[in-house]
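Newbie here. two chains, one complex. Structure please?
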Amino acid sequence: MWEQIRANKRNSILLLMLMAAVLGLLGWFIGSAVSPDPMAGIFGLVVALIVWMILAMVSFSSGDAIFLAASKATPVTKSVHPQLFNVVEEMAIAAQLPMPKIYIINDPAPNAFATGRSPQSASLAVTAGLLGRLSRDELQGVVGHEMSHILHRDILFVTIAGVMLGAITLLSEIFLRSMFYSSMGRRYSSRGSRGGQAQAIMLVIAIIAAILAPIMATLLYFALSRRREYLADAGSARLTRYPEGLASALEKISQNTTPLAVANKVTAPMYIVNPLQKEGMKLSDLTSTHPPISQRVKILRGMAGASFADYSDAFKTATKHTTPIPSSAIKEETIQIRSASQQPPISAKNQHRNIGDIMQRTASFSFVNCSCGLKLKIPPNFKAGEVQCPRCGQMLTI
Amino acid sequence: MGILLILIVIVVLLVVFVIGIYNALVRLRNQVTNAWSQIDVQLKRRHDLIPNLIETVKGYMQHERGTLEAVTNARSQAMGAKGVAETAKAEGVLGRALSKFLLTVEAYPDLKANQNFLALQEELSSTENKIAFSRQAYNDQVLFYNNKIQMFPSNIIAGMFNFAKSDFFEIEDAAEKAVPKVSFGN
């Protein structure tokens, strides 16, 4: 896996440079379009590079915090969901990584992501919808996938890329909107004909650049994220020694039809399953951030063992493409697939009940069990120390 | 004079070489110790959970006294075990006693609805998983360390400074190698 880790570090730097170039060009074109003075282009370039530097520093120091805040993730303690903490700890031990910080996103759509600068400062966020629906084995598969992203250092790359992409999109939008709202004819018609013509050409180029830059950046970002998903799937199978867990989790997640409200174009590649696109659409085009789920499930189910080599073989039989696993990872090791934990399937009604419970607990509701069997859910702004059970009339202390 | 200088250079190089290998061996040995302490934390956790578990189920499972006693006895055996090999054996016995116990729980629907029991069961099965995963990490470290001790030329230095081989943490029963089956009621 060292090959992959190195490649990720190299790609992170490469991406930073590339984004600097894109941003610089954009700044130069916009500058030239605004004024015919040759210094204006340079001024635009300098401003863009300063913006880039600030962005690079921000994404490096607090990119993870930005993503967590944008996804409305709440940091939680073990009492909110002990099983989640246990499963994360198990996977941290298996991957020999420190325990990441754990967040819950209060959203009924099932999804999960990991972010952070390094494994030492990583964060893992899962939605309440995911926790409520999945069995223990399935949850372990998903957490194993996210832990693999942390182990492969995908998180730094995706975080930097996300912040940069967000910034380029934002700058282009600002420029295009300002063009739209200001009367465009006013500037160049009042100048001399030659200068005005050159400026008009620059303006056209600037507009085209402003439209193209975010698209190019997005394509680049997406293309690089698909291979990572396969690798993280392989890593999850190896860590959990149970590929079926992740396979059935992916299936369950793809059956969900409600989109994740807190996700957007920039944060989409971070999630285990693309939160914006519906399965069933043909996603072999350039804009898909994730390989089709049916394909990922098919590969996982085709694994004979739980090692990278087994994933690689299953990948080749399922897709007829060359394996995404780096050759250094395919070493001589045999990892047997473990047996499933015995667990009755969770009924749809209980799944919804679980999701509600987790969401309320995350929002710091407290729960009181009455001896008559009723469970009372107390909102955080309820200040009294006692509450009467509505069924049996008993007074309960909170 | 020239020969003396060459000799001194050779001796200095040799000393540097030996120091390098010695330090590498110490580092590996420390990694093994560290990996072992990771397992030890989880084993202690398992030992701590069992009395609570027995206390919780006692009221429900009066007819399973034998199974419960087997677990309690295996626990005290495991707690008294010294050294890696002995611990591995005792923990293997405890693991089997626990899986047998958890299988009998299936016959008690009341117990499976008990929140306290469910929480304990989750903790216990997670501890089992953590033991399995940290055992893997420990055995990997032991393999590195033992290889280094047995391979030339580090085996000479290992012999000089008494670096002893470490034992693998192995559970002999093949069925135990997989993460133990534990059921979860919901």
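Moderator note: Chain B has seven helices and no strands. The two ends of chain B are 84 Å apart (CA to CA). Thread marked as resolved.
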